Amino acid sequence: MANPPVHEWTLLAAAKKVREKEISSRELTRAILDRIERLNPGINAYITVLPEKAMKDALACDEALRNGRTPGPLHGVPVGLKDIFCTRGIRTTCGSRILRDFLPPYDATVTGKILSSGAVLLGKQNMDEFAMGSSTETSHFGPARNPWAPDRIPGGSSGGTAAAVAAGLCFAGVGTDTGGSIRQPASVCGVVGLKPTYGRVSRYGMIAFASSLDQAGPVTRSVPDAALVLSVIAGHDPRDSTSVDLPVPDYLAAAGQGVKGLRVGLPREYFEEAGLDPAVRASVENAIAALAAEGARMVEISLPHTRYAVAAYYIIAPAEASSNLARYDGVRCGHVTCCAGGLIEMMSRPRAEGFGAEVKRRVMIGTYALSAGYYEAYYGKAQKVRTLIRRDFEGAFSKADVILTPTSPTPAFKIGERTGDPLTMYLSDVYTIPCNLAGIPGISVPCGISEEGLPIGAQLLGRHFREEDILKAAAAVERAIPLPRMAPAMEA
Amino acid sequence: MSITREEVLHVARLARLALSDDEVDRLKDQMGGILDYVRQLDTLDTRDIVPTSHAVEMGTPFRDDSVRPFGDKEALLANAPDREGDFFRVPRIIED
Q1: CA nearest neighbour of A136 among A360, A336, A419
Q2: What is the mean pLDDT of residues A167-195?
Q3: Nearest chain A Cα to B36, which residue?
Q4: Long-range contacts: A293-297, Cβ < 8 Å, 24+?
């Protein structure tokens, strides 16, 4: 078998080869930067690329190895970050016009952990504006494209990250997931995406969308790669009061364990969903068969409040967003557009010019739901429904160790196909949203390819702080159903 | 559920968004559609249900209320749309 080209290596393989001096970080980084230069104009996976800085950091990595310094787990390996993580002195836009010139004065905790693991930062990846979207079409910097089919969306909101990983424009990326924004793009781009338990990874310096739901996690080309990145970014951070002080387990070891005896719950409601594409159903059934063949036990479970999850989410997330986005008032960053008309006018203009249509829609819905006279009927009600959804999962996890579902009801749709109707777009998150509302971990792993050649993912959900369980189940699916991780269209 | 133009304008003022007439019309329809969809939650009986604000139960962590210098004042002010010395400059908001 011929050796795979550099850009197809897994993160683990690349890190090992750098550590053992089979390849220098300089060569590795140069190869990926050349590929970005060639392919990014078509895919638009990166908003900002950092060629000079990346080469300088790569040379420093090589120098450190020569001097016998102990390398970190990602030493010398080029990676990308969603443009939602603050990077000190490096433009961080969150996909928005209002932050197009924002230079963060500090690093997010995730940024700091990725850099101190030795990784080389290639650039900042494209995303839906303020992470609001399922297609990366709401980015102020133009839509990212799916490397498997450039007329289709790469998912969202971490679409740039998933597209970059699938096109070999980085060895791994870190995205964020509020209602499916890591798992759905991973699914439609044929890569692996993991949303950790709420509180597992620090949110410090990660631009806030919906604070009770947001969580950062890895996007990679293999399950063990996701385990490695998670072990780098997980852990308690005193600067995020919702980050949890629990030891970080050996995720990489967990990804290597078998699934014999593991109880896999199949929620009947998820397979009865009217919008479920037959090709997605068939591929997820293959994943079920693969786990059963490895000795896992299938149990039928019920999550009866699933059908209310999208409605609860589209109150809670916009409400929290409307509050978080109040800080963009044209005073501390952005540009002054007017001086007449008093304070309200002074704030309302830059916000109207700086936010796109989807962000305005959600700020409006959220403000309405929190406004006097409506709070109990909307936000209060949605939080109670959230309790019912959480209880569904508590019941299910008394019978099952992990839960297997489709990640997205359909493969990637065409660019422009759903932009006219916000509700149809929102319903593409039907399988991923309940996980965020319950705060549990979830992973999407490739499990098939449609007749049109589009990737399909299966989602595995686990108990709070049991990322090990979903990693080992996803790794078993990955071993049993080998699929290309690199988008074939890219090689033309 | 329908929402009136006046309600949209009221919410836009609360949200500090200067909307164009077209945007008001479009949001009136879209917000009405989304609010219709979320009203399905009303079919659920939640009388004795405690709301969930955070999915993972944890106490409020405390820390000492101590001042720690940030050190890079220039980096903070560099993002200011307008500044005067070490201050963020904003239009006059109090009338004589």
Answers
A1: A419
A2: 98
A3: A311
A4: A293/A480, A294/A258, A294/A259, A294/A260, A294/A476, A294/A480, A295/A258, A295/A259, A295/A260, A295/A261, A295/A262, A296/A259, A296/A260, A296/A261, A296/A262, A296/A263, A296/A264, A296/A473, A296/A476, A297/A261, A297/A262, A297/A263, A297/A264
Quote the CA–CA distance of A326 and B77 in Å, as a whole number: 20
CB atoms < 10 A from the CB of A16, how many?
14
CB contact under 8 A, B56 and A345: no
**Quick check: B94 contacting A, CB < 8 Å?**
no
**Tens digit of each residue's pLDDT (9 = 90 or more) over A324-346:** 999 998 887 776 655 566 778 88
Q: Determine, for residues B37 and A344 on separate chains, whether the beta-carbon distance falls below 8 Å.
A: no
pLDDT digits over B21-75, tens only? 999 999 999 999 999 999 999 999 999 999 998 888 778 888 899 998 988 899 9
Region A278-293: mean pLDDT is 97
The residues pairing with A174 across neighbouring beta strands, listed in sequence order, are A81, A218
**In CATH, which superfamily holds the domain spanning A6-303+390-491?**
Amidase signature (AS) domain (3.90.1300.10)
- How high is the pLDDT of residue A492? 44
Measured at the CA of A282, the angle between CA A281 and CA A285, to 5 degrees, comes to 85
pLDDT digits (tens, 9 = 90+) for A104-158: 999 999 999 999 999 999 999 999 999 999 999 999 999 999 999 999 999 999 9
Helix (H, G, I), strand (E, B) or coil at B28: helix
User: Chain B residue closest to A91 (CA)?
Assistant: B79
Distance from the B80 Cα atom to the nearest Cα atom in chain A, whole angstroms: 5
Stretch A167-194: mean pLDDT:
98
CA distances from A358 to A123, A270, A309 (A): 25, 27, 20
Question: Residue A154 has which token pair?
Answer: 């790469």
Beta strand extents in A275-355 (DSSP E only): 297-301
Domain boundaries, chain A: 6-303+390-491, 305-387
Peptide linkage before A157 cis (omega within 30 of 0): yes
Write the CA distances from A359 to A44, A352, B65, integer angstroms.
21, 10, 35
- Within 19-58 of B, beta carbons closer than 8 Å to A belong to 19-20, 23, 27, 30-31, 33-35, 37-38, 40-42, 44, 46, 49-56, 58
**Candidates A365, A368, A388; nearest CB to B49:** A388
pLDDT tens digits along A405-429: 999 999 999 999 988 887 878 888 9
Residues of A with catalytic function: 82, 157, 181
Element (H, E) at A25: helix A25-43
Whether A212 and B54 lie within 8 Å, measured CB to CB = yes
CB–CB of A18/A61 below 8 Å? yes
- The predicted complex's ipTM stands at 0.94
